[in-house]
Each structure stands twice: as structure tokens, then as C-alpha cells.
Write a structure and sequence with these properties.
Radius of gyration: 22 Å
Number of strands: 4
Oligomer: single chain
Largest sheet: 2 strands, antiparallel
Structural class: alpha+beta
């Protein structure tokens, strides 16, 4: 696939990449094909404790800006506190769609309900 732009980014090409060594270079994007990845290579990475991750909510500076805004505007999460002793009923209720927003299980001996 030919493009009129180049992308500069991190590409882990050597074993040192898993140890935090980054290799920045220009490369041209291409269409992904199922043969591009060998599932055995993926399992060998996870067996060594390597992690591959990403974020669909923004770049680190955008996430930091968002969190600063939530502090400034005193945004509070919408949660329903449920007693830890009632966890089985909470799971049933959640399965039935009764949870609104997010259930938070609270150990009554350590926190107020």
C-alpha cells in the first residue's frame, strides 16, 4: 500500500525492545494481513512477561489533562455501593441489568456504606 506520508514511531525490532530500548525510524504503513503475525511469537512474548498495550482514550498528555479537569471541576464517579457480604446477589443483579453505573463492593468492617 503506497501512501503520500511517512510515519515516525517506535518499532521493536530487536530483543532489547522488551527491555525498554526503543528504535525510532520512518516507515511506511501497510495493510494488515492475517499472515503478518505468528501466534507462536505472541505466546513466546507473553510467556516472557512482555506486554503489548494501547489506549483508545488518548495520548498520555490528553489523559493527564482530562484528569486535571476532573479534579478542577470536582467530577465524582456514579457508583452504587454494595456490601461485600451480598456479593452473590450483586452478581445476580448485575446479570439482570439492575446495576446502574458501577457497582463498588465495600467491606463493611473497613469502610462506611
Amino acid at each position: 500500500m503506497s501512501t503520500s506520508y511517512e510515519f515516525q514511531g517506535w518499532l521493536g525490532l530487536d530483543p532489547g525492545s522488551a527491555k525498554g530500548n526503543m528504535n525510532f525510524q520512518d516507515y511506511e504503513p501497510k495493510t494488515w494481513e492475517e499472515t503478518d503475525i505468528d501466534i507462536k511469537q505472541v505466546f513466546s512474548l507473553t510467556a516472557k512477561g512482555c506486554k503489548i498495550g494501547g489506549s483508545a482514550i488518548g495520548a498520555p498528555h490528553e489523559i493527564e489533562e482530562m484528569l486535571e479537569l476532573t479534579v478542577k471541576k470536582e467530577v465524582k464517579p456514579w457508583v452504587q455501593k454494595r456490601s461485600l457480604k451480598d456479593v452473590n446477589q450483586a452478581v445476580v443483579d448485575m446479570g439482570e441489568g439492575k446495576a446502574r453505573y458501577r457497582y463498588v463492593l465495600v467491606n463493611q468492617s473497613h469502610a462506611k456504606m
